[in-house]
Specification:
By secondary structure, the protein is mostly beta strands. It has 2 domains: about 90 residues, Macroglobulin (MG2) domain (Immunoglobulin-like), CATH 2.60.40.1930; about 300 residues, Methylamine Dehydrogenase, Chain H (7 Propeller). It is about 0% helix and about 50% strand. The protein is built from no helices and 36 strands. Strands 10-14-13-12-11 form a 5-stranded mixed β-sheet, with no helix packed on it. It has a 4-stranded antiparallel β-sheet with strand order 1-29-28-27, with no helix packed on it. Strands 2-3-4-5 form a 4-stranded antiparallel β-sheet, with no helix packed on it. The two termini are about 25 Å apart. The relative contact order is 0.13.
Length: about 425
């Protein structure tokens, strides 16, 4: 929906109901930025996430992991060493828990593994021996097959049979070494699937799914239907309860109910998806500039409005009430609630009027503002400069009770501090935002 009155023609807004749930179901109650707290020269991108022993590990694409021992309140850098000693091999691109709390870190041309526990993590560089002409250049996905056997997908697939201390290239790969392996998952049948993108296809994308029936020792191309030739799989996960496989692809989200032999596109936007997670209560799917979710027992998808404009590269469940989201602008924690409610209580109606802090903030050129209405009301949401002059009238109409989100795109106002004010009936709430040009 677009406002086109006078000077506000370039400013758009979207009103979205964030949650519509039935009694005693889990709902999203808030989204919190966990790292970094403000813009900096640090790597803000989070490519991979895992949790172990009460800690959160975030692969940032830099030379180090970010590690938190207090559910994201504070963070420390951890720098696992590499066998070569070359800092150019140290860019962390993937991280996963293996062996009951131990961590494997995938890097550019290198792998590291944790050997200690407690507050001070001890790391050991792993040896990597590969037979590919280009060498093993990039770790994209880590998957523990069973016991001591672990696979890393990147330039083809490498394997460890001693819990991650040494790695070697898998020989029989049906040309898999020519692919970038973005994702690894186990189908309900026990077969291991690998989603891959063919090297050298820029401008004419193509991909394949490979499978292994012998724990990753050898691989063949999977003959499946429903995925266009131009689509490649970037992430896969399995709903253990239903046996459904979800695949994030370069052009949409797909699902399979027969071990990956046939795929059906899910009714979400046709854009690149980078991550997918089946949590205790929800299915989450990260796409370019949006994170979508639905309850596991429904087919109705919604967008997490607080993360609009961000791309979710990594998703993991910290516990049944918290989901971690790694994006192109840091890590966020989604807080869920599953408290039982009285039979006549309506969870879609907030208890009080509230106005959220805009995100991102500072911003250029767009930001999102969330608010909630306990009852249907005439609502105005107006942006003013510090002189009290109106800059944008984002909402001016009656809205139903519920959770709402407004997107404010600024193409005219200069840098500085601005106020945005929500009026619903006789109640007024205001907050500050900062525009940077």
């Amino acid at each position: 929906m677009k406002i086109t009155t006078g000077r506000l023609a370039a400013m758009t807004f979207v009103i979205a109901l964030l949650a519509s749930v039935s009694i005693a179901q889990t709902i999203i109650v808030s989204v919190e930025r966990a790292w970094p707290w403000q813009d900096s020269t640090m790597y803000n991108m989070v490519l991979s996430l895992t949790t172990a022993n009460g800690k959160i590990f975030a692969a940032t694409g830099g030379h180090y992991l970010q590690v938190s021992s207090d559910t994201g309140k504070t963070w420390k850098e951890s720098v696992p060493p590499v066998a070569s000693g070359n800092p150019n091999d140290a860019y962390v691109s993937a991280v996963a828990e293996v062996d009951s709390g131990k961590i494997v870190v995938g890097r550019i041309k290198a792998v590291s593994r944790s050997v200690g526990e407690g507050e001070n993590i001890v790391w050991k560089p792993a040896t990597v021996t590969v037979a590919y002409p280009q060498g093993f250049c990039y770790a994209l996905s880590i998957f523990q097959v069973s016991g001591d056997t672990i696979l890393i997908g990147g330039d083809g697939i490498i394997m460890s049979t001693n819990n991650g201390f040494s790695w070697f290239s898998v020989k029989e790969q049906d040309n898999l070494e020519s692919f970038l392996v973005y994702s690894l998952a186990r189908a309900p049948s026990g077969r291991i699937l690998a989603g891959a993108y063919l090297y050298g296809t820029e401008g004419s994308e193509t991909g394949d799914i490979f499978f292994s029936d012998n724990h990753g020792v050898s691989w063949e191309t999977l003959q499946c239907t429903g995925l266009p030739d131009s689509v490649y799989v970037t992430a896969m996960t399995v709903d253990d309860a239903s046996g459904v496989i979800f695949a994030a692809t370069s052009y949409g989200l797909y699902s399979s109910e027969n071990n990956g032999l046939a795929w059906t596109q899910i009714n979400l936007p046709n854009r690149r998806f980078s991550s997918v997670l089946v949590s205790s209560s929800h299915v989450f799917a990260g796409a370019d500039s949006a994170l979508f979710y639905r309850l596991k027992d429904t087919e109705a998808w919604s967008e997490v409005a607080e993360l609009h404009g961000l791309t979710a590269y990594a998703l993991t469940e910290m516990d049944s009430n918290h989901v971690l989201v790694g994006t192109n602008s840091g890590m966020f924690i989604i807080h869920l609630s599953s408290s039982p409610v009285a039979i006549n209580e309506d969870l879609t109606k907030p208890e009080a009027l509230s106005l959220g802090q805009n995100y991102p903030n500072p911003f250029n050129p767009s930001t999102n503002i969330t608010f909630s209405l306990p009852t249907s009301s005439m609502v105005t949401l107006i942006v003013h400069n510090v002189l009290g002059q109106e800059v944008a009238r984002l909402v001016d109409r009656r809205l139903e009770a519920g959770y709402h989100s407004v997107r404010f795109e600024n193409n005219q106002s200069g840098s500085g501090v601005y106020l945005y004010t929500l009026r619903a009936g006789d109640l007024i709430l205001s907050k500050r935002m900062v525009i940077v040009r």
